[in-house]
Specification:
CATH topology of the largest domain: FAD/NAD(P)-binding domain
Shape: globular
CATH class of the largest domain: Alpha Beta
Radius of gyration: 21 Å
Strand content: 15-25%
Number of domains: 2
CATH architecture of the largest domain: 3-Layer(bba) Sandwich
Bound molecules: flavin-adenine dinucleotide
CATH superfamily of the largest domain: FAD/NAD(P)-binding domain
Length: 424
């Protein structure tokens, strides 16, 4: 296939080697049709990656197969992974009933639970890049491209820069859309012994689920890998104190029969979407572009969308369309990130089995902000009306077959399962 944009995409930089940067660098190596392009993979080895992205969506299974050229079975084993068929919700909603949000088709489509570090290693093997270990001071648009300035090295000019430097230091209302209707902002991460055994030959075929367990101060995720099981307590530091959360985490693990754990990290996170994800020369990707708490594991799939959109557009469209294409791509990406945000925030709309300060805050104060936060006048995209359309569809006595494939970030089947489970 002729890719007219490839001639103006000779020199590319990816800044960051977390999940997002690693995916971008491997994607450039895989998708660029000309072997003589130049790819610089830049990172500061003194700045650690977040590295806790261990849940995914089914599109990652296909993507890793394509990027690595390895069979699915090998990829899964290299990731010390298990097959994730959905998310098992415990204690959520008003029905006092546990339920599962399956990927569709149910019991067929699966994603991975994966070790983020091992995925970075795997992707590095598929990346053909000049690696630069240096701190980036600035990435600035210049005529026809972008310039990267470094600490201790001369600046370099690129045709396209993927900025995967992770969370912004602080949110700026002029630059970021704050997803204020999501009620959580901090995670305590613990690592516990594996509950799924590695198979002697071949990958683990057993169906596994991410558990999302409602707790008095928020919720706990449980992600089973073959090397360890990851636990994370997600809460709001303005509502609950860390000591109370740790104590409830201890109770939860004890009730779960887990007698030993390694305390890994306490991570603060923002819930936001950058208003300028792609400007024609710089593409923010991963946690630099958008983030929302990990309830539906939307971060890796968001990075895939951002990278795929920008790279395919740049390769397949002639250079003269670039300035016109950029705002269209930017709006598309913001719209999709906000759709994920609305889907995730909606999970809190019916509370949980706990009538605690956190759950009252989540249901009665945070979630009701969604209309103001996603107002089209404030965010310049139609995510809110698309979300409303999904809810309206769910309320119809019969959903017409023509609507079965509708999506708003995620498929209608996901909305239907959550609506049933939560008791919306
Ligand atoms: C509690 C929690 C749970 C999560 N669970 C999931 C999940 O289940 N599924 C999922 O999809 N996602 C999950 N995520 C999201 C996960 O963080 C992301 O998928 C993933 O880590 C992407 O991060 P990143 O690559 O954008 O940034 P990071 O991992 O932060 O990497 C940033 C990179 O940029 C480099 N860097 C930074 N500044 C500079 C500089 N000035 N110069 C040079 N290099 C620099 C660093 O060295 C690093 O390599 C979770 C996040 C949190 C907080």
């Amino acid at each position: 296939m002729i890719q007219p944009g490839s001639k103006s995409l000779r020199k590319i930089a990816v800044v960051g080697r977390g999940t997002a940067g690693s995916l971008a660098a491997a994607s450039v190596s895989r998708l660029h049709p000309d072997g003589d392009h130049e790819l610089h993979h830049i990172y500061d080895s003194r700045i650690p990656v977040v590295g806790v992205g261990e849940g995914s969506w089914p599109s990652l299974v296909q993507e890793l197969r394509k990027l690595t050229d390895l069979p699915h079975e090998t990829v899964q084993q290299r990731l010390k992974g298990t097959r994730k068929y959905g998310v098992a919700f415990e204690g959520w909603g008003r029905r006092n009933r546990d339920f599962t949000h399956y990927f569709t088709p149910q019991q067929v489509s699966y994603a991975y639970h994966l070790s983020a570090d091992l995925m970075e290693n795997l992707l590095r093997e598929s990346t053909n890049a000049h690696r630069i270990d240096a701190r980036v001071l600035d990435i600035e648009r210049v005529e026809g491209g972008a310039e990267v300035t470094f600490e201790g090295l001369p600046p370099e000019r690129y045709d396209l820069v993927f900025d995967a430097r992770g969370f912004p230091r602080e949110l700026d209302p002029g630059r970021h859309i704050e997803i204020s209707f999501i009620p959580t902002d901090t995670a305590v991460i613990r690592r516990c012994p594996a509950i799924v055994d590695e198979e002697k030959e071949g990958p683990v075929r057993q169906h596994t689920y991410t558990r999302a367990v409602a707790r008095p101060h928020g919720w706990v995720f449980v992600i089973p890998l073959t090397v360890h099981t990851s636990y994370g307590y997600i809460f709001n530091r303005g509502v609950s104190g860390l000591a109370d959360v740790e104590a409830d985490f201890d109770d939860f693990l004890e009730a779960d029969g887990v007698s030993e754990f390694e305390q890994r990290a306490v991570i603060r996170f923002p819930n936001f979407v950058d208003r300028q994800i792609y400007d024609g020369a710089v593409a923010r990707i991963g946690n630099a572009a958008a983030f929302m708490e990990p309830l539906e594991a939307t971060a890796i799939v968001s990075a895939q969308l951002q990278i795929g959109m920008v790279l395919n557009m740049r390769l397949n469209r002639p250079a003269e369309h670039r300035e016109r294409d950029a705002p269209v791509a930017n709006r598309f990406l913001i719209d999709n990130m906000l759709r994920y945000g609305l889907f995730v925030g909606w999970h809190y709309s019916c509370g949980s089995v706990y009538d605690t300060e956190f759950w009252r805050y989540a249901r009665d104060r945070a979630w009701p902000r969604f209309r103001a936060a996603a107002d089209p006048g404030a965010v310049d995209c139609a995510a809110l009306s698309k979300f409303d359309e999904m809810i309206e569809l769910l309320n119809r006595p019969v959903i017409d077959k023509a609507d079965w494939d509708r999506m708003c970030g995620v498929p209608l089947t996901s909305y239907a399962q959550m609506s049933q489970g939560l008791g919306v």
